[in-house]
Write a structure and sequence with these properties.
Blueprint (H helix, E strand, L loop, with lengths): L10 E3 L9 E7 L6 E2 L4 E7 L2 E6 L4 E6 L6 E3 L3 E5 L3 H5 L54 H9 L18 H8 L69 H16 L2 E9 L1 H14 L6 H12 L9 E4 L4 E4 L5 E7 L2 E3 L2 E2 L7 H16 L13 E4 L19 E5 L3 E7 L2 E15 L5 H16 L11
Parallel strand pairs: 12-15, 15-16
Antiparallel strand pairs: 1-8, 2-4, 2-7, 3-6, 4-5, 6-8, 9-18, 10-11, 12-13, 12-14, 16-18, 17-18
């Protein structure tokens, strides 16, 4: 199916919103049809993954049309706003025609003027050449970004046979994935096609007689087609029963997708234990009094985890998986994800190089990123790149948990609510403070014994807290 190329320079398409972002939910329009806007005025508020983004106007003008309604998913590269065109510029030709040559009446062979409109280059404003835009298209070749071409190669799809649905007929990621699933044209390609060899070319000069032709094996029976799953019946309720339907949108939609991905990819298993943090509680209170800062248990837990993950036998827990290439990526630095509950759902801001920070520094970083996550001011890059995650479920209630791994990481530690309980020291029974700990790991990467020993080391460090004050990495 051919797609008509956009020839309207007054159409503003949704620009790139960050690395790996292909769509955003339209939260709120900040303009309306007929409104005159200045350059950089905010057109709309969008939500991408876990961050709010404001889309500014690339130019001054009057709004002619708004593409999309609030709550709708908008895709990068699709029209967002159409401006009223400049009548004067539209009526003026883009380039003057060359005068007619002498001897050719009425300019019969004069070169035609350039068209008044040009193709939308897919940029925020103005025109970008194919090379600068990262797109190329020779005659008969698809127009696509390098990332989309790479995806087509990975999926063994001939991108030149895929019909593009993007602006100007560009092939998008969605088009390639549809072709891979058989939903669009685009047959598989072969990067290393071998030329066929004629029968005569197989003749050999060896004196060894050619083997007798083999009897062809019987064809394998065709597999029965897997029946499509029956559609689930709609949930019904008693007439008059009060219900509220809440669509999966925004942060909740992202959380649902990522949790499903984690469950589908990682093989979860859990080990649990308790740490006697009585001595740690005393040290924490002394440090708070000396520094004048509020100090919680969490920075000490982060420090204990960093020290454990820095040990050679436990470095595997500070890994991420690259399932596309079937690789385990072990990280040298420890970038600690801190699961944070907000009014909009769970977010995981990241303390980068956590193993290079002392306890007080970790506490300050945790407070800063948690606060910016809750008020939605956190930059997108602070929500990416974690190598291990801690979920402090005990700040509310509960003891043990079975946390879901923050895929593609391979481990997550849930910290339960610290409580008073009976502890045994040197054969005696005492009342102390017990901190429940639940470690979940990806069994494809981490063995059960490794996880159990790692948790035991974390418990040991929390029960002997003096060493936790300094950074794990010098």
């Amino acid at each position: 199916m051919a797609h008509q190329k956009s020839a309207d320079p007054n159409v503003f398409i949704l620009p790139d919103l960050g690395e790996g972002v292909h769509e955003a939910e339209l939260i709120k329009w900040r303009v309306q049809v007929g409104q005159t806007v200045a350059e950089h005025d905010i057109l709309a508020e969008m939500e991408t993954d876990k961050a709010l983004v404001r889309s500014p106007s690339p130019r001054a003008g009057t709004i002619k049309e708004l593409h999309g309604v609030e709550g709708e998913i908008q895709h990068v590269g699709n029209p967002l706003v159409t401006y009223v065109g400049d009548a004067a510029s539209e009526s003026k030709p883009a380039a003057s025609a060359k005068p007619a040559s002498s001897g050719h009446a009425n300019g019969a062979h004069a070169e035609p003027a350039e068209p008044a409109h040009r193709e939308d280059a897919g940029t925020v404003v103005g025109k970008m050449s194919g090379e600068l835009a990262g797109m190329s298209a020779a005659p008969g070749k698809a127009l696509a970004t390098p990332a989309v071409r790479r995806l087509a190669r990975d999926l063994n799809i001939d991108i030149d046979r895929v019909s593009g649905s993007g602006i100007g007929g560009r092939v998008t990621e969605k088009d390639v994935r549809a072709a891979a699933s058989g939903g669009a044209s685009g047959g598989p390609r072969c990067d290393m096609a071998q030329p066929s060899i004629p029968a005569a070319a197989t003749t050999t000069t060896s004196r060894t007689p050619a083997p007798a032709p083999r009897t062809p094996a019987p064809a394998a029976p065709a597999r029965a087609a897997t029946p499509a799953p029956a559609p689930r019946p709609a949930v019904t309720f008693a007439p008059g029963e009060a219900v509220t339907r809440i669509p999966f949108r925004g942060v909740r939609r992202t959380i649902a997708n990522r949790l499903r991905e984690s469950v589908n990819q990682a093989v979860h298993f859990n080990v649990m234990d308790e740490a006697d943090v009585s001595a740690l509680d005393t040290l924490r209170k002394k440090l708070a009094a000396a520094s004048g800062e509020k100090v919680s248990f969490l920075p000490f837990v982060c420090s204990a985890v960093c020290r454990t993950l820095s040990m050679d036998q436990f470095r595997v827990l500070n890994s991420t998986t690259d399932d596309a290439n079937e690789e385990i990526i072990q990280h040298r630095a420890i970038h600690m994800g801190i699961a944070t509950d907000t009014d909009n759902g769970l977010m995981v801001p990241v303390v980068r190089d956590c193993d290079a920070l002392g306890v007080l520094e970790i506490g300050r970083h945790v407070n800063q990123i948690a606060s910016s996550a809750r008020d939605r001011s956190i930059p997108r890059d602070q929500l990416m790149g974690s190598t291990f995650t801690i979920s402090n479920v005990g700040s509310y209630a509960g003891r043990f948990a079975t946390p879901i791994i923050n895929y593609p990481e391979v481990g997550i530690l849930a910290v339960g609510r610290t409580r008073e309980g009976v502890v045994v020291r040197n054969g005696g029974m005492f009342v102390g403070k017990l901190m429940p700990l639940s470690l979940a790991c990806d069994h494809r990467v981490v063995d059960g014994a490794t996880a159990a020993l790692a948790l035991a080391e974390i418990v040991r460090l929390l029960q002997d807290p003096e060493a936790l004050l300094a950074p794990a990495r010098g």
